[in-house]
Design a protein that fits this description.
heterodimer; A: mainly alpha; 8 helices; 65% helix; B: mainly alpha; 5 helices
């Protein structure tokens, strides 16, 4: 199947195609899913190299389990985030402390040089603040507010209840606000704090 | 920091994901190809096994190979009629014929009368 013909095909359908030997399905899935799992891992680990390792390992597990995928039970992305989460948390438990300086460079997609610089600085500040949160709070906040998962999906990824997700997200956002307060002017925000 | 400021930061972060390098993409695709190749020939794939039970009953592929060889040898001997075989046959026949009284053997002499057309 041509790559553009696969653009409307769901992740799940692509995975089934892949399991049945389709030569284009893997590429479509890779282009679609790798940025998401890489972005998530980069914000969890604050280390680009480690994040790439996690992304590759998570995708490898996806390829291996493709023939056994149970259709209609879960979203492929949710499954992938769960695998990536566990890989990230394993690495975080094994290696302390982690560097806060090597955060993934944000991809520059905004118009205007100055606006771009301000946005990049703000996102960098956010990433550094995220890195300072407890692991599970960071995980919940990133999945909810950056990766865009719903609370039930996050509950499935983290293997906890929806209320626990809401609590983690609330505490994480409170922590971020505290870490970033006092930097509003520096980060380009106007008005009273 | 206001909640709206945080929401704004999150929105900006959503537009700024790290791009996978070409090298990472290549590695992931290489993994995909290798795993997919395993689907076609691995133990999990169900292949037609119509002959496997029959082969096992005959004693396995080794036995069948020997049987095939013997069959082909016999066929060759029959069609090719190599000289040593003919010679052997002729020699044995001549030996019998040369032996006194063994040219034509009357097996049941009393049946001679029945051989006459009436």
């Amino acid at each position: 199947m041509a790559l553009d013909a696969l653009s409307d095909v769901s992740d799940e359908a692509l995975l089934v195609l892949y399991a049945n030997g389709d030569p284009g399905a893997a590429r479509a899935l890779t282009l679609r899913l790798t940025p998401r799992v890489l972005g998530f891992a980069a914000r969890m680990l604050s280390d680009r190299t480690e994040a790439e390792d996690v992304a590759q390992e998570a995708m490898l597990r996806l390829w291996r389990m493709a023939p056994g995928w149970q259709q209609g039970e879960a979203r492929v992305a949710t499954w992938l985030y769960r695998v990536a989460s566990n890989l990230c948390l394993d690495r975080l438990r094994r290696s302390r402390p982690r560097g806060l300086g090597d955060v993934a460079e944000p991809e520059d997609t905004t118009p205007g040089v100055v606006a771009r610089m301000i946005e990049a600085d703000r996102v960098l500040a956010l990433d550094k603040a995220l890195a300072a949160l407890p692991d599970r709070q960071r995980q919940a906040v990133v999945l909810r507010h950056i990766e865009g998962l719903s609370n039930p999906e996050i509950a499935a990824v983290m293997d906890i209840g929806v209320e626990a997700v809401e609590s983690l997200v609330a505490r994480g956002k409170k922590g971020l606000a505290a870490l970033l307060s006092g930097r509003r002017a520096e980060l380009g925000y106007e008005g009273e704090d | 920091m206001q909640d709206t400021d945080l929401e704004g930061l999150f929105a900006e972060a959503r537009t700024m994901r790290p791009s996978p390098s070409a090298d990472l993409t290549a590695r992931i695709l290489a993994d995909a190809d290798a795993v997919q190749a395993g689907f076609r020939s691995g133990p999990g794939v169900v292949r037609p096994r119509r002959w496997s039970g029959w082969i096992a009953a005959m004693g396995g592929t080794g036995v069948l190979a020997g049987l095939a060889t013997a069959t082909l040898a016999g066929l060759w001997l029959g069609f090719a009629q190599p000289a040593p075989v003919l010679t052997l046959t002729q020699t044995v026949s001549d030996a019998f014929a040369a032996d006194a009284g063994l040219g034509a053997v009357e097996l049941i002499p009393s049946l001679d009368a029945f051989g006459l057309e009436g």
